[in-house]
Amino acid sequence: VIHVAILGATGRMGRALLSGVFAHPQLQLSGAVTRPDDPELGLDPGGLVAAPATGFQVTADLAAGIRGAEVVIDFSRPAATLALLELAQARGVGVVIGTTGFSAEERARIREHARSLAICQAANFSIGVNVCLELTALAARLLGPDYDAEILEMHHRHKVDAPSGTALALGEAVAGAREQTLAEAAVYAREGLTGARPERAIGFATLRGGDVVGDHTVLFAGPGERVEITHRVSDRTNFAQGALRAAVWLRQGRTPGLYGMREVLAG
Ligand code: NAD
């Protein structure tokens, strides 16, 4: 069996991961970590998802929580992810990063850690979104820059970062196919007298509300027609299954490096 710890265990994704680990034949939970002011601190992780008791508690002590783990799965916040990578460094564990909302500097630090750790990071662990990333790159390449690319996303009211990591990844797919960089092409917001749309811009629109798990549309608007590539998630277990698959994949003798869901799906 592979021993797995979860960082962000009490969250929306953390609970989906706990259920997934308890049901998985190859995985065993070795630790569950949360933030120090979490009211659910000290509870048995089994109890969080109506599963049998594990005999240990949800902890805010990261070092203790990842002790004995071969892989740590992280769906928390950027500051917690970076604290995890520092500790993982000394222990040589594999790390699956699902957290989003990293700054450019934080992303650079993740790449730095990946020189000595095997890390699998994806803004979206669903299989369907990874297919949409490929379709988006293909459409951008075939349609060319005369088709204006706009990316629309909607998430539940509790989401704290915008645009979503997945929307940014879709933007990267368009930019890559057109040999642009997202940094130079992206228009993240529009208000007031914006002027006409810059040529070759990649526009974003962010919607927040209700309990939407995650919807994304990439829209290519050309002369007299529009192409739309849409993905909708109705259940978080879909992300959790992808992250668990990545955890098992990381334990199959991966050398240090920064991997993505594409490599995991390729086997
Ligand atoms: P949430 O707010 O429900 O849960 C966050 C969890 O992290 C909680 O357990 C919280 O206590 C813990 N946490 C927060 N700050 C912490 C800290 N400093 N130290 C330790 N623990 C801390 O959030 P969520 O909806 O579960 O999403 C978590 C993250 O995963 C977000 O960044 C979200 O965008 C991302 N996400 C990624 C995917 C994907 O497929 N990659 C899918 C869904 C969500």
- Main beta sheet, described? 6 strands, parallel
**Average pLDDT value?**
96
> Which stretches are low in confidence, meaning pLDDT under 50 for 5 or more residues running?
none
| Helicity, as a percent range | 25-40%
Approximately what portion of the residues adopt beta-strand conformation?
15-25%
Taken in chain order, the helices and strands follow as EHEHHEHEHEHEHHEEEEHEH
Number of DSSP strand runs: 11
The first-to-last residue Cα distance is 19 Å
Radius of gyration: 19 Å
Task: Identify the strand order in the major beta sheet.
Answer: 2-1-3-4-5-11
Our count of helices gives: 10
Please state the overall shape, judged from the principal axes of the Cα atoms: elongated
Structural class: alpha/beta
Any key phrases for this structure?
10 helices, 267 residues, binds nicotinamide-adenine-dinucleotide, 6-stranded parallel β-sheet, alpha/beta, 5-stranded mixed β-sheet
Structure commentary:
It is a single chain. This protein has 267 residues and is of the alpha/beta class. Helices cover 37% and strands 24% of the residues. It has ten helices and eleven strands. It has helices spanning 12-23, 45-48, 62-65, 78-91, 104-113, 127-143, 165-177, 182-185, 237-250, 261-266; strands spanning 2-7, 27-33, 71-74, 94-97, 118-121, 148-155, 186-187, 202-208, 214-222, 225-233, 257-259. The radius of gyration is 19 Å and the shape is elongated. It binds nicotinamide-adenine-dinucleotide. Nicotinamide-adenine-dinucleotide is lined by residues 8-14, 33-35, 38, 75-77, 79-80, 98-101, 122-125, 239.
